Every structure is written in structure tokens, then in C-alpha cells.
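Sequence only, no structure available. Ideas?
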Amino acid sequence: YQGWASDNQRDWIAALENTGYQVVRRFNNMLYQLGEVPCYPLPDGFEIRPVKPEHMRSIWEAQKEMNQGLFENVVEDWLEEKYPAWLNDASHTPQFWQVAWVGDQIAGMVLARIDVEENESRKRKHGYTEHIYVRPPWRKRGLASALIARSLQVLKEQGMLEAELGVDSENESAAFHLYQRMGYKTFSIDTWFRKPMD
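Reply:
I predicted one. C-alpha cells follow.
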């Protein structure tokens, strides 16, 4: 069995712990205040291209690849029959996505997003830097930093005042520490609990 709780849900955390659930992972929800935006140049050899309909399949495949290595991955979400729903997901804002290419291959991406309805209901100017991924052959060249910085700039240009992301605090690619170095700050922590089934 599995459950999760935000750090302010103390009664729910107590209920989980009292019924035999144990902590297995913590995820940091992080926020970047869009005042000064860092500037990291795009490394040589990469090209950012506006996202076109014919790119969507490659982005899906890259996102599927990224999720395979994540603790929270659900394999069923990436079955072939799920592609049409992903393609038509109303939350996608590809006009803000930063996708780096090397020839005909995606090297890395940040799928930035703005939820207009959520911002209106909460009276805020809030964006998301999500699905941050650099494929293994192109890591450790500064590509992730450059894509994040470009995404933050795009969100700022759209009038956003802050950008959010969530990250596994035990992420094996050291993403959590990268985001800290770039200026993101943790504002809450989600804890995942699991309990063996009888």
C-alpha cells in the first residue's frame, strides 16, 4: 500500500504511521522568485527549436525515458495507448517548452507550464518548471542549467513572479542540489509512505 502527505498534514501523517506505514521517500517542493533570472549560455552543439506538432512524439519518448528512472514512475502511464491522452493534455503549454536538439535527437528539455485558471483562482502569478531532463549522453555539459534559465526567463516574460518544481530529495542525478545552486528554495516537503500487503 502507498500513501503520501504534505509536511503540514500532521494528523494524516500520524494516522499513516499508527497503521504501520513507513517513510520511503521525501520530495521537496521548491520555488524560484522571478526577480533576477540566472543566465547560463547554451553549450556549443545544441539547438533550441520551437516545438512543432511533429516534435511531440519525440518529446513523449524522452519523457517516458526520463520517468523510467524515477521512484514515482507508474509504468502503465506510458503504455502506447496512453499517448493520445498525453498528446491532448490541456495542461500542456508547448509554446513555453525549452527543448534542446542535437541533429534529430532530443538532448534535454524543460517543459515549462502556466496554469491560467489556477492562477486566477488563487490570485497569483505562478509558473512551473517541470520534466527537467538531460539524456545521459549529454549530461555534465551545463545543458540543464541553460534550459532551466531559459525557462525561468520565459515565465518571467509572461508576467509570472515565481516558478515551482518538485524533486525527489534522493534524485540520483543530483538534481536537488542543482536546483538549490540555481536559487530554488524548498517551501514544503511531501513524504511518501508504504506498507507491505498481507
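The first helix runs from residue 10 to 18.
Hope that gets you unstuck.
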